[in-house]
Design brief:
This protein is mainly β and 197 residues long. It has two helices and nine strands.
C-alpha cells in the first residue's frame, strides 16, 4: 500500500514537471521573449564550471516572470576522525519581468548561512541581470552581484558557498529549447580569509 502511494505521488510529480517543461518550451517563440541567465539555487550568479551536485548541490535556478523564491536547508554529516559535519540554509527572492518585448530583467537578494567544520559563514547580497534576446537563437546579458556582508571564508570552503562580488557579460546561442551554448566574461572578488570562530 505504501509503495503504491509513493509511486502515485512520484508519477504525479513527474507529470507536473513534464507539463511545466512543455509550457516553458512553448514560450520560446512567444511574442514576449522572456529570457534570463540562470542563478544558483542560492540566488547567486551562476558561473561555470561550478560543482554541480557536489555536497549541497549547486543546481541552476531558472527564473520566470514575476516573483521568484528559493528556500533551502541541508544537514551535513561526516563519519571518521577527520570528518566534518554542519548545517546550511539559504533564502533568495528575485523579481523578473520584461522592459520591452526582447529586454528582460531581474532584481533580487539572497541570504545564506553555512556552519561546517568549525567555521560559520554568513552572506547577504543583491543581484541584478539584464538580458536582450535578438531572435530565437541569439541573446546577450549583463549581470552583477554585490555581497553586502563581505563574509570571511577559508579558501578550501569558498566553492561551497559561492560568495563574493561579480560583474560580467554573457552571450548565448540557443540551438533548440533544450540545448544552448554560452560564453561569459566576468570579474569577481573572492573573500579568501580565514574565520576565527
Amino acid at each position: 500500500m505504501i509503495i503504491r502511494l509513493l509511486l502515485t505521488i512520484f508519477i504525479l510529480l513527474m507529470s507536473q514537471d513534464i507539463q511545466a517543461q512543455e509550457v516553458k518550451d512553448s514560450t520560446l517563440m512567444s511574442p514576449v521573449e522572456f529570457s534570463l541567465p540562470p542563478l544558483t539555487y542560492r540566488g547567486t550568479i551562476a558561473h561555470y564550471p561550478y560543482y554541480n551536485g557536489l555536497m549541497m548541490g549547486f543546481h541552476d535556478w531558472e527564473l520566470h516572470p514575476g516573483l521568484n523564491a528559493s528556500l533551502s536547508a541541508a544537514a551535513i554529516f561526516g563519519f571518521g576522525s577527520n570528518a566534518g559535519s554542519g548545517f546550511a540554509n539559504s533564502m533568495a527572492v528575485a523579481y523578473a519581468g520584461n522592459i520591452t518585448r526582447k529586454l528582460s530583467y531581474s532584481i533580487g537578494g539572497y541570504t545564506s548561512f553555512l556552519d561546517y567544520a568549525n567555521h560559520a559563514m554568513k552572506d547577504v547580497g543583491l543581484t541584478a541581470m539584464l538580458n536582450y534576446r535578438f531572435n530565437e537563437h541569439w541573446e546577450a546579458a549583463l549581470f552583477a552581484q554585490k555581497s553586502i556582508l563581505q563574509p570571511k571564508v577559508p579558501p578550501y570552503l569558498y566553492w561551497m558557498n559561492d560568495v563574493g562580488d561579480k560583474i560580467g557579460a554573457a552571450v548565448r546561442y540557443n540551438i533548440n529549447p533544450s540545448f544552448s551554448i554560452g560564453l561569459s566574461v566576468w570579474k569577481g572578488t573572492s573573500p579568501y580569509q580565514y574565520y576565527d570562530r
